[in-house]
Task: inverse folding
């Protein structure tokens, strides 16, 4: 009984060390217990398990805990294979043999060195910088900053420093490197200071995506202890990272603004987005200790999914915009093109820069239906005033001609009277 329970508990704590949720750990423990002919109940948290096994006559209770938590998809995959293959003959093995097999799986710590993990974070953050709207300058600075930041975090974690110190040190280093590179580029090549917003992208490697997802799944399955512990763990990481980045922004005088709009064609945008998505997913997969082949597959799937979804949104927006232009603005646009040149030149009382007909046509094409309708209304009002002014001038001319005719007639009558007197 004790031997069976120890195997069930060891598999559970090994699964928990891989970063998976409580529902997955409990399901695996129950599957093993059922194959061994015992019953298992477990109370699972973020870093500890308290479980009890029964065989009908005896019971065994044990508490297990971890010193740290993380994500190791390679070990997780091996453990899942172990559980699936257990019913195919491995249950006939002795307890000692099963423990030796688990020893081999437990030796799978990290597949990558801190330098490799730093490069993975650099690749991931550089890719996501483009996806968030950044350009080549932001991507390069975020690449270097994230790489150095995650390298520092891995080295500190390896020496068992506290969570707060690892987060604060890595985020501060990433922000400092980003700001330093941007300042150097500004001094050497007069790079605009508007690229400061990218320093946020240099710390994306710290975002606890796995704990957020697993906490949501556990809460959805009403596993409140594990769900709340994971949620608080993720929020602590985000809070410490945010405070560290805010303090560094104050010290370095960073005042980020929106990214500058990239001048790319639709085809270029799709290609670059595909590459950036691949790099982002591949980098984070390596950070989660996935083998290169598995990481490449996940990156390919993620790149196609992200790019396809965003491309569909872009095409839908373009179609919608095209429908509005055809249905509401075509006739108005042609009418305005016909008379806007003379109207602006003769009737608008402002100093404007002389534009070519092509520039004026391009300006009209960019106007929204509401702006074009307002402009047409304004032109109609000006034309009406012009017609009134011309009508008034016509009346004055007619009146002047009448006065001249009366004066001529009077002069003729006076001349006739003088001739008669003579």
Result:
């Amino acid at each position: 009984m004790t031997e069976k329970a120890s195997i069930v508990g060891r598999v559970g704590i090994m699964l928990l060390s891989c970063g998976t949720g409580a529902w997955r750990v409990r399901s695996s423990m129950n599957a093993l217990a059922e194959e061994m002919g015992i019953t298992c109940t477990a109370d699972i948290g973020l870093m500890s398990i308290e479980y009890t096994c029964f065989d009908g006559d005896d019971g065994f209770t044990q508490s297990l805990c971890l010193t740290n938590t993380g994500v190791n998809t390679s070990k997780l995959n091996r453990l899942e294979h172990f559980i699936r293959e257990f019913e195919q003959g491995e249950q006939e093995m002795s307890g000692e043999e099963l423990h030796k097999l688990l020893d081999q799986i437990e030796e799978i710590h990290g597949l990558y060195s801190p330098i490799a993990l730093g490069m993975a974070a650099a690749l991931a953050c550089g890719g996501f910088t483009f996806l968030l709207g950044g350009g080549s300058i932001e991507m390069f600075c975020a690449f270097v900053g994230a790489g150095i930041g995650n390298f520092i975090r891995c080295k500190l974690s390896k020496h068992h420093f506290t969570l707060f110190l690892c987060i604060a040190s890595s985020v501060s280093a990433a922000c400092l490197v980003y700001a330093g590179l941007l300042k150097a580029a500004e001094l050497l090549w007069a790079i605009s200071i508007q690229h400061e917003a990218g320093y946020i992208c240099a710390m994306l490697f710290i975002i606890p995506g796995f704990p957020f997802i697993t906490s949501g799944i556990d809460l959805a399955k009403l596993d409140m202890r594990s769900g709340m512990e994971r949620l608080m763990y993720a929020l602590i990481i985000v809070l410490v990272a945010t405070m560290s980045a805010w303090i560094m922004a104050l010290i370095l005088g960073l005042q980020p603004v929106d990214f500058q709009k990239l001048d790319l064609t639709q085809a270029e945008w799709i290609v670059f987005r595909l590459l950036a998505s691949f790099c982002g997913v591949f980098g984070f997969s390596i950070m989660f200790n996935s083998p290169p082949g598995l990481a490449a597959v996940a990156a390919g799937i993620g790149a196609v999914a992200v790019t396809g979804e965003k491309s569909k949104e872009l095409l839908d927006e373009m179609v919608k915009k095209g429908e509005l232009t055809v249905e509401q603005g075509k006739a108005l646009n042609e009418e305005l093109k016909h008379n806007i040149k003379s109207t602006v030149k003769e009737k608008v009382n402002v100093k404007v820069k002389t534009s070519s007909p092509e520039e004026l046509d391009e300006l009209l094409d960019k106007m929204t239906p509401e702006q074009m309708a307002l402009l047409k209304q304004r032109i109609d009002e000006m034309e009406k005033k012009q017609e009134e002014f011309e009508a008034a001038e016509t009346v004055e001319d007619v009146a002047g001609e009448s006065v001249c005719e009366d004066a001529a007639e009077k002069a003729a009558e006076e001349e006739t009277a003088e001739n008669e007197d003579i």
Notes: Residues 343-355 have pLDDT under 50 and may be disordered.
